[in-house]
Amino acid sequence: MREENLAETPESPETCGKAATSVASATSVRMILWGLAVAVISVLLDQGSKIWALGALSEGERIPLLGDALGWELIFNPGAALSLGENSTFVFTVISTAVVVGMPFLLRTTVSLSWALCLGAIWGGAAGNLIDRLFRAPSPGRGHVVDFIAYFDWFIGNVADIILFLAIIVILVLALRDVPRSALDVARKEAQGRDKA
Fold this sequence. Notes:
alpha+beta; 5 helices; 4 strands; 11% strand; disordered N terminus
């Protein structure tokens, strides 16, 4: 009787391994595409709102929307949120660049759609402000970020800041709920479940 070639059967470890690799690769591509879609939308919203602000607002003039709580006020911010680090513009450019360049690699290992959407929002928020730092005055890499949404007398931000803030809040919720981001997180959670059982 002729022996079957197990390497060619669907149930063989080699075939199963290839199938698992194919599924993992498809998941990686899907998560990157979801993240990219959110990032692109975030950048368009941020840069579009900044174009509007530059055309409709005068620098330093406050236009109340909800009394003193919320208003329009155009400024050019050399620092980070809350106008921190005003003399460290280039440092923030480097950090933003690292986030924008590194995010696809993080998304590549992501298996959760919720995580992918949040990481895409951070990707887009960081890219929106990075565009300002790279291409706006006074010089490439040291450009000032366009901020125009004033909150009380606390600080002035932009749409990218809102996107980043909301994404970080949701990420904290995901972390507190122990929602796994990567396959390693899934394996760790399954191992913990077996240990408890």
